Amino acid sequence: MFRTLREKDFEAIRNSALSRQTPSNLAGAFIICIPLLWLMYFLVFYVAGDATRDVTNYPLFSEMMLICFWFTVVLTVLMSVFTFRYFYMKFQKIQYILAIVLSHALFSLSVYLAALFIIGKSDRVSEDVLTKITLISLSSMVLVVIVTIIRFIILLNKGAYRKGTAKDIQRAKFEGYSYVPAVVTASTGLVISLQMIISSYGFQGFREIIVIVIGFLVIHVMSFVLPEQLVILYCKYRFKSFNFDNRGELHLME
Fold it and tell me: What is the pTM of this model?
């Protein structure tokens, strides 16, 4: 669907996004995020899920805990490798894939799982309700990703991400309106999920409610981010100018 587009059609994304995401900057972020990743693992499974005492009744909690443990181990090892200049300069695309996985694991999935596990600790919530809440929220998230990708395709084909065009003002206005379908989709899924949670869980504990709301809100917000990350990854594989030279500067556009 992007094969007919040329390098200049992605130039605005290249200049705005990649200028902050150099391989050295990502390597520094990895160093900081490794302990944060393990902290979130502890908070999700031993605080929100309370694996040692009042364990959540969320379905397959123990299996998820084990899977997430090994996922965190593997991700930690890979991120550690890509803090070394030789690896992150030679395999920039793989480093960026790790950055995508890290951003969603640390800032989205962790908080979302914590919210689900807290809901599962209520005696008023059955496994069936938990499954429905999960399916509705994940379906909403997938729809947001799909709608946002469609938005990207429309804007790219209209030349909205070309640099220095005469239609910059119109582009900005159209881009703002183009968020409306994705926002409506996300809001609908969020409201339905929260209504199910409130009716089943009740307002027993203000702090728990805050965590639940934030968890479901964050995963929908990150759904807006994922399509742009995937577009950048696609461009990294297709265009040399989306990658960095040995001086840490973007290659020139052809």
Answer: 0.81
**Alpha carbon 53 to chain centroid distance?**
31
Q: Are 214 and 164 in contact (CB under 8 A)?
A: no
Return the pLDDT at 205: 58
Q: Confirm if 44 and 114 have CB atoms less than 8 A apart.
A: yes
**What does the pLDDT read at residue 167?**
38
Q: Burial letters for 241-250: b for 16+ Cβ neighbours within 10 Å, e otherwise?
A: bbbbeeeeeb
Q: How far apart are CA 45 and CA 113, in angstroms?
A: 9
Do 174 and 160 form a contact (C-beta atoms < 8 A)?
Answer: yes
Distance CA 66, CA 17 (A): 35
Say what the pLDDT of residue 102 is: 92
Residue bearing tokens 């059955």: 126
Structure letter (DSSP) for residue 108: I
